[in-house]
Predict the 3D structure of the following.
Amino acid sequence: MDEQGHMTGKKVIVGVTGGIAAYKAAELVRLLVKSGVNTHVAMTEHATKFVAPLTFEALSGNRVVWDMWSHETSPMDHIHWGQESDLVVIAPATANFVAKMANGTGDDFLSTMVLAASAKILVCPAMNTRMYMNAAVQRNLRQLKDLGMVVMEPSAGELACRTEGPGRLPEPEEIMNRISMLLSAQDLTDLKIVITAGPTREPIDPVRYLTNRSSGKMGFALAGAAAMRGAKVILVSGPTSLCPPPGVTFAPVNTTEEMRREVLDRSIDCDVVIKAAAVLDYRPKNPSERKIKKENRSFSIELEPTPDILAELGSGNPGGHRILVGFAAETNDLLANAKTKLKKKNLDMIVANDVSRTDAGFDTETNLVKILYRGGAIEDLPLMSKRQLADCLLDRIKKIWESAK
Ligand code: PMT
């Protein structure tokens, strides 16, 4: 899963209720803690029959509350917890607990805490399929949505009761993605953004091709961060081994021409294009239809230039109605080369990375960049993860967008 830097320091309460999926809540707590979230767990008494509170205590590093009357609980904890946290996640939420929340019942620590909470509440129902489909449960879930809670659809598959259908608790990583989205500022909801990533691939013959070392990490980090912040994101990517981030429309391509067509089509009504892809500048002029046979002599492949997608977008962008952002991967003369590309392609900004470094550019987890703006300003950013850089770049793009309104 992507690094979730924006979650560091947030406070999340995980409410565990009495179903077999309670064991998955342990992994959820582990992932939250790993993301830097201050995680507290409250359990119903029934949940303690499935997983011991000690498990959650060890994972969260915090005291677990399940007995309202315990002397270890301060008398006002059920009021304070939900007011001092950023999010309450009920996972798993049993049919019984869903009914209690829908009806405003407060008869234990967790249900009273939910009643008094001012934080957002994410409910993750998990139960047998027939219970889940029951009209009363469905009505209760609708009621929770009407009350402003976020209800996550259960996933379908084999259940602990040996039946198949909807009712499974989504995997902890999926719940984490939803939590991450709920904890993110939704400040890009007005924007439709086309982002490119990865390399392009140009065939030499049916089994060989030209390509480059782009892993797609920078473009995918941008797409994930933009989607988390509420933007409508279309990710056009050359071949990589990465999974598209949640909430993103994914358009996989191979060649530069395929990327060109997708980007031009998809950017017609978009607000921002960010081209993090490493597009091949040349392709074999006449790729062979048959596999080229090995012979004991040298041979040459004639290359022709590929279309410059960003320059084409820039040439049709005279009014600046669309924000165009390029990347420049350079081994030398970083600023001079990036400046030339910024001007030639008519961009609003270009992100220059020095790919001769081992901690920046191609297939690294981090990046070190300078941002060059249309007006001539240059900004130096420190070394940071690609995900952190993605958020920094989106902050800059948002500013340009707002000042152009
Ligand atoms: O994918 P990673 O492993 O995470 O690596 C990230 C990266 C190094 C690939 C990325 O950060 C980066 O620098 N991408 C651009 C690399 C590049 O090819 O730059 P360029 O100088 O050739 O092109 C300048 C800009 O024009 C780029 O935005 C490029 O997408 C675009 N371009 C280039 C050629 C072409 N035919 N069409 C284009 O649109």
